[in-house]
Amino acid sequence: MCYAHARQTYNxxxxxxxxxxxxxxxxxxxxxxxxQAELGDLMYVRVAALFEISKxxxxxxxxxxxxxLSAHAPLKYERSAHFLTAYGRDDISANCVSxxxxxxAFVDSEINQPAFISAFRILRTVRDKRIAHLxxxxxxxxxxxxxxxxxxxxxxxxxxxxxxxxxxxNIEPDRExxxxxxxxxxxxxxxxxxxxxxx
Length: 199
Prior knowledge:
By secondary structure, this protein is mainly α. It has helices at about 1-20, 20-25, 30-50, 60-70, 80-85, 90-95, 100-110, 115-135, 140-165, 180-195. The N and C termini lie far apart (about 40 Å).
């Protein structure tokens, strides 16, 4: 699942950053620095791919997933209005004919939010210029992490709503789909202790 890969990569980067003081006391600070930088490049690629729309090929992006569901999934799930209410989007139900129209409208509304448009533009610029072509891009790393959070949140909400409708099961809008950074931080702490333990 593309969202899982993107979220886990981001959580891993954050875990290394959170433990920077502990890491810098070891002889492996350069190793973790390289690892964090490589994870950063991978993160930009994976997060940008979540909402990539290609006219030439079908990607595994969320817009293409939603289009596929609307074209092929059975239209027997009529509780979608209830699920949209849980996401605070009663306005969508009134203007759509089918359940999948509502889902498409929800995703469209997510990706047309000003914060999303700005975040996606920045991430694609970093990916296309700095990572793919090694061009200099004047974007602060900390600000791009904020943009990543915007994209991941839109992805999480869209996937959860799609799952709620498809499985006809209420998935809480605020529930995180992927285990959080604590797992990465705890695992990283164990790794640091293991590699720095006196022989």
